[in-house]
Design a protein that fits this description.
Helices cover about 45% and strands about 20% of the residues. The chain is of the alpha/beta class. It has four domains: about 240 residues, Glycogen Phosphorylase B (Rossmann fold); about 210 residues, Glycogen Phosphorylase B (Rossmann fold); about 170 residues, Rossmann fold (3-Layer(aba) Sandwich), CATH 3.40.50.1000; about 70 residues, Trehalose-6-phosphate phosphatase related protein, domain 2 (Alpha-Beta Plaits, 2-Layer Sandwich), CATH 3.30.70.1020. The chain is elongated, with a radius of gyration of 31 Å. The protein has 26 helices and 30 strands. The strands form five sheets. A nine-stranded mixed beta sheet has the order 5-4-1-6-7-8-11-10-9, with helices on both faces. The chain has a nine-stranded mixed beta sheet with strand order 18-30-29-28-19-20-21-22-23, with helices on both faces. A six-stranded parallel beta sheet has the order 14-13-12-15-16-17, sandwiched between helices. GDP-alpha-D-glucose binds next to helix 1, strand 12, helix 13 and helix 14.
Length: about 750
Amino acid sequence: MGRLIIVSNRLSFSLAKDGDELVFSPSAGGLATALTSYIERKRATDPGFECLWVGWPGASVDESEQEDVRRRMGAERQAYPVFLTDQEIEAFYHGFSNSTLWPLFHYFPSYTQYDEEQFSAYRRANEAFAEAVLQVTRPGDVVWVHDYQLLLVPNLLRARAPNLSIGFFLHIPFPSFEVFRLLPTRWRKEILEGMLGADLVGFHTHDYTQYFLRSVFRTLGYEHHLGQIAIAEEVRSAETFPIGIDYDRFMEAAKSEEVAAIRARFEAELHGRDVIFSVDRLDYSKGIGQRLRGYEAFLEAHPERRGQVVFILVVVPSRTAVERYQLMKQELDELVGRINGAYGAVDWVPILYQYRTLEFTELVALYNLAPVALITPLRDGMNLVAKEYLASKPDGRGTLILSEMAGAARELGEALQVNPNHKSEIADALEQALCQSPDEQVRLVRLMQERLRRYDASRWATNFLETLGRVKERQGKLATRHLVGDVRRAAVRRFRSAHRKLILLDYDGTLVPFAPAPHLAVPDRNLLDTVCALAAHPESLPYLISGRDRQMLDSWFRDVPIGVIAEHGAWMRTAGGDWGLIKPLAFEWKDQLRPLLQFYVDRVPGSLLEEKEYSLAWHYRRADPELGASAAKELTDDMVNYTANFDVQVLEGKKVVELRNSGINKGIAALHCVALHAPDLIVAAGDDQTDEDLFRTLPEQSLTIRVGTIHSHAAYHVTDHREMRAFLRELTESSDLVHS
Ligand code: GDG
C-alpha cells in the first residue's frame, strides 16, 4: 500500500509560542491518542509503513514563518500544516463546526446557529484542507479524513482525484433524520454528498450508521443494500467501527510505581472516603449539571453517606472562546458552590471540583483509586473516559456508572447504565455501586476489560483501513464493460457457439422505455419481431422476467413463443405452457398494508396503487416529481418498519415502491429455469435493483447485461433499451462482422 495520509482538524500536537520560539506540545483527545497508538505500533512492526498527518497546527502562524514551520513539521513530526487565520478559525471552527454541527449532532437544536456566512467559511476551510491533501498525496496513497469539522473534504478530494482511496470517520453521533433535517436543505445535501465522497464512511455505533443511511436516502434518494450505497457511477459503503483505547498503555501505567506514588499522595488527603470520579471537557453534551443534581439527590436520600463519600469532579477547560461555554462555566461554579454550601461540613467538602487539565499519570491515578466512575453524558459519540477507567483497574475492582446515551454503552453492557436526565436514577445507581460486592465488581470489570483489550485503538484503525481496502476492491469488481465493439462481437460469438441458450430479459426499462402508466408500455412491432427471432434461433429459450402481473404479460405476449416469469419470480410458465407458482406464498398481508399505501395515493396526486396477486406497488411516475420522490422515501422508510413482522420485503424501483413476499426474487426464479433447461450459456439483462438479484445469482460465466449504469453485478452494460434491442437482433442476424 502507498502511504497513509491522516486528515483531521487538529494534529497530534499543537504549536505554541514560547517567547520567540515555536514549540510543539502533544494534544490530548481521543482521536489523536487512538491514531498515535496505531501509528506507533505499525511503525514498530512494518518497516515499509509511511504516514503523514495533515491538519491545523493549533495556532495562527505569520506568513513569514509559514515556510519554516512547514519544513520543521515535515522533518520532525511527519506532518503537513493547513494554515488558517484567526478569522477563519472563528467562523469555521468556533462558528459552523462548534456552534452548528456540534450542538445539532448532539441533539441540542436550541443551541444551534444557522448562519450562512459561517457555512461559507466552513466550506472555504474544507477547501483549504482538501487543497493541502492534494499537494502531498501521491498515486496509491490512502487518505483517511476525520470528524465533523471536515465533512465536505471527501467529496472535494473525489472531484479532483477520482481514483483516490478515501475513508471518512465521524467521531461524534450522527443524529436521527428528524434532527438532521433541521439543517437547511442545501447544507444538508452538501454535507451528505461531502461525506459520500469517501469510499468508506465509518461511525461508532450501528444506530449512527443507520441514521446516516436513512438521511442519505431521505435527502439524496440513494438506497443502500446492507450499508452499500449505489450512487450514479460508484458504490460507497457505510459501516460501524467502535473506537477503542490504547488499553496496554493505561494498564501498564496503572501498575507503575509513578502512578502508585501519586495515588498514595491523593489518598492521604481523602481520609478513607469512597471516591466518585468524573472527568470531562466542559461541554453541555456531558451532562455535568444533571450529574451534580443526581449526586445531590443521592446525598439527600442517603444522609448516612454524607462525610463518607467524596465526588472528585474534574472539568477540563474547552472552547473558552465560545460564549455558550463561558456561561456554562459560571453556572457550574454556582452549582458546585450551592451543593458544597448546603451539604458540606467543617471537615468535609462533598465535591472536590477542579477546573484544569490533568497530567496523564494523575488521570490514571484517579481512575485507579476511584471505586466509582460516574460518566453520564447526555450524548456522546463514544466516550473514551469510561473505557480508560476500566483499563486502569489491574485488580478488577471498581464500578462504572455509564449513561445509556454514550456510544460506549453499546459495548459496555455490564456497566450500571442510567438515563442521565433522571436524577433519582443517578442517585440509585450511586447507592447500588457503593453496595456492589467485590466479587461482582471483578466479574463484571473482567468481562469488559477483555473486550477492550482485544478491540483496542490499533485494532479499530486496522479494521477500518482493511475494510476500506476491500471496498476499493469490490468497486473494481463492480465496474462493468460497455457492450460495444470487440467486446460485443466476442459476446455474440460466444452466443453463436453455445448449444443450449437460456435468455432472461427484464421488460420495462430494458426492452421498452418507461411509460407514464404501467398499462401503456405496450410492446411495439419491432420488439415482437426481435423476440420472435430469438425464439426461432436454434436451441434458444427466451424468457421475459418481469415484476409485472401475469395477465398483462399474457395479453401482450400470448402469440409469441416465449417463456414468462411474472411478479418478480412468483409465477412462471414455459413457452406455450401453463402458469405455476414457483413456491407456495401467503398474501394475507396485503389486506393489512393496502390501506397504508392507499393513504399515499390520496396524499400524492397522480400516484396510483397497482395490485398483483402477490405484491402491491405504489407508482408515482405521473406525480409531481419532487413530491413523489420525497413521499416514496417516506413510504419506503415507513414500510420497512411496518413489515418487520411480515414475510414481506420492500423494494424501491424506478418511480415505484413495491411490497412483495420475501423469499422470491428474480435470482431464485432464474435458478428454476436453469434447473429445468440445463443451458450451457445464460444471457440475462435488466435495468434495476431487482435485476441485480439475478446477476448476483447466475453463474459467473453468464452473459449478464445491465441497462443504464456501469456499476452492477452484471458483467456488461449498455446505455439504454435501444442498444439492448440492437444487441439482441445481432445475436440472431447472420453478420460477417461476427465471424471475422
Ligand atoms: C470525540 C467524541 C469520542 C480528558 N481530560 C484529560 C484527558 N482527557 C482525555 C481522556 C480521553 C479524551 O481526553 C476524552 O475522551 P472523549 O471520548 O471525550 O474524546 P474526544 O476526543 O473529546 O471526543 C467522543 C472521541 O472523539 C473518540 O472518537 O469518544 O465521543 O466527542 O482520552 O483521557 N487527558 C489528560 N488530562 C486530562 O485532564 N491527560
